[in-house]
Structures are given as structure tokens and as C-alpha cells.
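Translate sequence into C-alpha cells.
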Amino acid sequence: MKAKLHAAAGGVALLTVSCFWIATIAAELTGNAEIIATAKAAILAGMVVLIPAMIVAGGTGFSLGKGWRRPVVQHKKRRMRIVAANGLLVLLPSAYVLAGWAAEGRFDTAFIILQTLELAAGAVNIALLSLNMRDGLALRHRPARAVRAG
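Result follows.
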């Protein structure tokens, strides 16, 4: 049950971060200030989905990985530390600031720089979460050990 909860929460987290990233790019490509502001507000509101998903994925992952010495599990733990730090130190604060600036119609150089940083950090998290999903699926579908005859 814990493994299924972990997989579901991880999937929701990856999907949510990916949707935030795509929404930002799509809104920017329109060049429409109102659409950009709406996307930024929606991303900030979407944190109510992402934050619990990340907490559940991280908590269940650390619980499931406790005592495992396999390198793949250590890699997943290391990646999650980076994802969490990236989220708390870059993505959450930038989402808050960018949503505020967009609501004010402030699309200046500072907005562009911060949004570029946010997109880069988001891309890193998408990559790391994808690697964790790949490794989690590999752990789940380990081939059975061959039994020696005779």
C-alpha cells in the first residue's frame, strides 16, 4: 500500500511540475499579459496540489528506502534532497513573487530574469523527478532471480 501511495504521489508531483512549466511557456508564447498573469496565479494556486504530493512522495519514499543499501535507492534520496531544496528555495518563492508581479502588470527585466530562473529550476526538478520515477519503476519490476537446477 505504501509503495502505491508513493508512486501515486510521485506521479502527481511530476505531472503538476510539468504542467506548471508548460503553462508558463505557453502563456509566454502568447505574449498576452492577462494570460501570463492568469497562468502565474493558477500556478501559485496549484501549490495546494504540489506541496502535499511532494510531502507524501518524499515521506513514503524515505520510509520505503529505509535500510536499503542499493545505489539506486541512494541516488533517489540524493535527487529528492535537491528537488526539495530547489522547490523550497527557488520555485515556491519565485511562484509567489511572479504571481504578484504579473497581477500588477509588472513584466520588466526582473520578471524575465526571475521567470528564467524559475523555468531552469523547474526543468531540473522535472528531470530529477523523472529519473526517480524511472528508478522506482525499475525497483518495482526487478527480474526474479534465476534458480539453479540440481
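Note: The mean pLDDT is 91.
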